[in-house]
Specification:
single chain; 0% strand; mainly alpha; 17 helices; 354 residues; elongated
Length: 354
């Protein structure tokens, strides 16, 4: 109920705290809490009930006659005076050039991110696993497991890589289309609203246990992701198709990394909503800095470069049996780099907010 309390404090803060106003605030709090319990009894979740209560009781001008405070909130000091400007929702900070985010907009964003959480995770996992068909087919052909020429296997693998990447891109486009109505919020072009912040904190807290559990499982997957490579390379060197087994280990490693993402990303949607609705009020240059995140810039050329190096080494040096080692090495390096940079960026964002 902290969100309702915060909203009440914001509604009444512009007016003198007279005994009648304090009594009216207590009455309105009771009305809002009763309405909240009624919505919950009808099957609404905590966050849905809070949003509907704020929507129904969000205008103090309309409620003034019912509460008997029309005289207290009526303009008495002349037009334009601070006490003559009742508000039904928290006002945007004067320094901000953007309007305050509303509870309805925040709930719409949360609903959209909740609907698309699995599709987003699947698209990311597809990108991680896209190289598996290429490295498996080319190595299988070069080691004699498949009765295909290396050229045919490599072309087939490239086609399959393209199909997987295309599926990921199509999925991402669909997710972005559903989130498009909230583009200004995602880009931080709004002023923060303490009521929305409180609501988002409650939402994140409600789902925090699931997120932590998902994070723990994902970390286990990522820590153990080198295991398939290590286990399959323990096959004696004179074993048949040793290179092929090693590449299967790489495929297993990439699959475990993707599995960790599939587990973690859908469980993090509520925390993502909180991060989004608390980043408002930034200057245009700050928004541009976030859109051009260092990790995103690095990723835009890092993986295409890795693919180019892999193909060049494999074709020119006829090294299909060895070139697979690029993938686990580059994957670990990128993970460490992205984790470090993301940690620094998160710390800087918290410092700016706080």
């Amino acid at each position: 109920m902290n969100v309702i309390h915060a909203y009440l404090e914001t509604m009444f803060s512009p007016y003198p705290q007279t005994p009648r106003m304090l009594e009216a605030k207590t009455e309105l709090q009771a009305m809002m809490e009763d309405a909240y319990q009624g919505f919950v009894a009808k099957g609404a979740s905590h966050n849905e009930a809070v949003g509907r209560v704020i929507t129904d009781f969000g205008n103090l001008d309309e409620l003034a006659p019912v509460l008997g405070i029309s005289g207290e909130i009526a303009p008495q000091l002349g037009p334009g005076s601070p006490a003559a400007q009742p508000v039904s929702a928290p006002a945007a900070p004067a320094a901000s050039q953007y309007p305050a985010i509303t509870i309805e907009a925040a709930q719409g964003l949360a609903d959209a991110q909740h609907r698309t959480r699995y599709r987003l995770a699947i698209s990311v996992a597809l990108f991680v696993m896209a190289a598996i068909p290429l490295i498996v087919l080319t190595t299988a052909a070069s080691s004699g497991v498949l009765a295909l020429s290396e050229n045919v296997a490599s072309v087939t693998g490239l086609l399959m890589l393209g199909v997987v990447v295309a599926l990921g891109v199509v999925t991402i486009i669909g997710v972005n289309r559903e989130l498009a109505p909230f583009k200004s919020i995602r880009e931080g072009r709004f002023s923060r609203n303490p009521v929305v912040t409180g609501w988002a904190e409650d939402l994140a807290k409600t789902h925090e246990r699931g997120r932590i559990a998902a994070l723990q499982i994902s970390v286990v997957c990522w820590v153990l992701s080198p295991a398939p490579v290590l286990l399959l390379t323990l096959i004696p060197r004179n074993a048949t198709h040793q290179d092929f087994w090693s590449v299967l280990g790489v495929a297993g490693t990439l699959t475990m990394v993707a599995l960790g993402l599939l587990i973690l990303l859908p469980a993090s949607w509520a925390n993502s909503v909180l991060e989004t609705v608390t980043k408002g009020g930034k200057r245009p240059d700050e928004i541009e800095d976030e859109e051009n995140s260092i990790v995103g810039v690095i990723a835009s050329f890092y993986w295409p470069l890795v693919v180019a190096i892999y193909l060049a080494w494999s074709f020119i040096g006829d090294a299909w049996g060895r070139s697979w080692i690029i993938w686990p090495i580059c994957g670990v390096l990128f993970g460490a780099l992205a984790g470090g940079i993301s940690g620094i960026e998160s710390y800087r964002r918290r410092q700016r907010r706080g």
